[in-house]
Structure formats: C-alpha cells, structure tokens
Amino acid sequence: MRLLGIESSCDETAASVVEDGRRVLSSVIASQVLEHRKFGGVVPEIASRRHAEAIVGVVQQALDDAGTNIKELDAIAVTAAPGLIGALLVGVNFAKGLSFASGVPLVPVHHLRSHVAANYLTSASLAPPFLCLVVSGGHTHIVHVTDYTEFRVLGCTRDDAAGEAFDKAARAMGLPYPGGVFLDKEAELGNPDAFSLPHPSVDGAPFDFSFSGLKTAVINLIHNAAQKGDELPRADLAASFRRAVVDCLVRNVTAAMRETKERRLVIAGGVSANSLLRRELERICGENGWEFYRPELSLCGDNAAMVASQGYYEFQAGRRAGLDLNALATMDIQLDFEA
Ligand code: KG4
Ligand code: ZN
Fold first, then answer.
1. Other CB atoms within 10 Å distance of the CB of residue 234
2. Is the CATH number 3.30.420.40 carried by domain 127-295?
3. N or C of the chain: less Cβ packing under 10 Å?
4. pTM for the whole thing?
5. Spans of the chain below 50 pLDDT
6. CATH topology of domain 2-116+299-316
C-alpha cells in the first residue's frame, strides 16, 4: 500500500511516498530555516507564505522521485495538528484539494504521532507496545504506545518543552537558530561539571517535567556576567545546560520504564537527535536490559516520511477525513480526529 505524506506544521514543507508504512520511496523537504534564522526563530506569517509557494513543487518532486503518480496512491496522509495554524492550513488544504480531484482517500495525522512513527522507518522490527519519550520544539511527553493508534500520556512538561529550552538557552549564548543543534555541538567541546544548574522536578508527578527554571537560571548567569563585563566559557555553559536537561529527561523516563515494566524505549522528535540524550539512554537501556530505539538522524526533525508511515497505520485502523477537515493548533496525542 502506497501513501503520500504531506507535512507543513512548522518551517519545513515536506512530501514523501512510503510503502506499507515502512519503506521510504521518496522524501523531499524544503526547509525555511535560513530565512527564519535572521529573526532568531520561526515567524509564522513567513512560514505560511513559504509553504504556499513550495508545496506544489515539493509534492510533485516526491511523486516523481518515487516513480509514481496520484492515481497509484492508496491514501493521502496530512499533518492536521498540532502546529502553527497558518502553516498547517496550507498542507491540509492542499491535501484536501488533491483528494477531491483524485478521489484518493484523505487521512489526518497528529504531528507527534508521526514523530513516533519515524522509528518504524528506522527499525523494521519495531512494533508497539513500547514507551516513547517525545521531545520536540513544542512538546515533551512520556507516552505509552500500546498500539499503532493508541497512545496514553504518562507525563509531560508543565512549562517549556525541552527543544524550546534548548533554543532559548542557545540564543542567550549567542548561537544561531535552531539553537538546539548548535548547543549540542558546542557542548561536545565543554565540561559538563563547570556550572552547577538546577535539575527541576514536579512534586508528586514523577513523569512530568519543568524546564523554565533551568532555562532562566542559565539566562541569568549569562546576563549577570555580561553586566560585569565578563563572558562565560560558552562550551562549558552549553555542556552544563545540556547535561541538566538530559539528566531530567533520563531520570523521568527511567522511572516510567520501571513503573510500566515496558522492555522497549523509543525516542522521537527533534531533540531525539541530541547526542548526549542518545548516548545516555543507550547506556541506561543497556544496563537495564531494555531495547533502545531512536530515529536515524535524518528522520528526527520534521519530515513527511513519518507522516506517511503513521498515516498508513491510521488508514489501516479505518481513520479517514472528509473534505471539511480543519487544522488545529493544539491537540492531545491521545485523541483521534473525527471523521
Ligand atoms: O520535532 P522538531 O523538528 O519540530 C517540532 O515539532 O517542534 O523539533 C525541533 C526542535 C528545536 O527546538 C531544535 O532546536 C531541537 O528540536 N533540536 C535539538 C537537536 N536537534 C534539533 N535539540 C537538542 N539537540 C539537538 N541535536
Ligand atoms: Zn516536529
């Protein structure tokens, strides 16, 4: 079964053709990152306009690269929530038009569910149940994935997402957007014990996260030093900050693995590219005899292959959207789109 995936939730316009949810026939990503870098973050209005310009060419390229055409598709999967509303609407409306014109069924996909599915493309044998740490720019969740379309949230962040904390700390350190990637590289050169930073936890909620205090602590350190005319060693600061974020993620996900007695741990989302997070979880899983799965680096960030993969499983579960499908800026991963 062949699905076209379409993704436009943030600043990547992407399309991909995937067979049976597992085999990528093509994957095209038009990134706007250089344009948003000038502003230090994504400018939603610009993102929507660029999606509108790019989407036709990106979808055509994905079909051409896969050596297929619309008539040979079994379904069109599109990211419909959550994300920047104007950005999402471009992909959703394009997918609806394509479905209307071709008669190919439309399948709505939750963005975070698709990040989880990036692992099905990387690891052919992976199947639910498993525990998944979903860490992106906008979300930080510990999710029990009991089936391909069944998700139970065990914990989430009470304030900033891990990616957001990385980006804001990186910006204060003078690193370019998207900060998480650059902070990760900088941290490789520094000493993680150089600065003592808080490791916030949430009282009575061992699987929940809080990153805003940690983010503020590092920003205050930088500003206080600047006021005295000092410059802190950036690599040491980056290494100490990365260490603190990763410690919090590892601490809670380890507790959730013990509580659920799951044997498989999966990570997903942009921050799953973080090199320390990958190393630490690999080690912890090794020590506990748990299997560890992570997406290949090219599939950690936003892409449409993961949308087509999750779309395949949603399609198999009978999920469809009508031509009245709307985009939603926020949506619980546990909920299904209404047909
Ligand atoms: O999943 P994603 O591509 O977009 C959202 O759905 O939000 O995640 C983007 C986030 C950004 O905050 C980016 O800085 C972060 O993922 N990120 C990283 C790394 N690579 C990307 N954070 C830490 N370390 C990385 N290597
Ligand atoms: Zn994402």
1. 18
2. yes
3. C
4. 0.98
5. none
6. Nucleotidyltransferase; domain 5 (3.30.420)
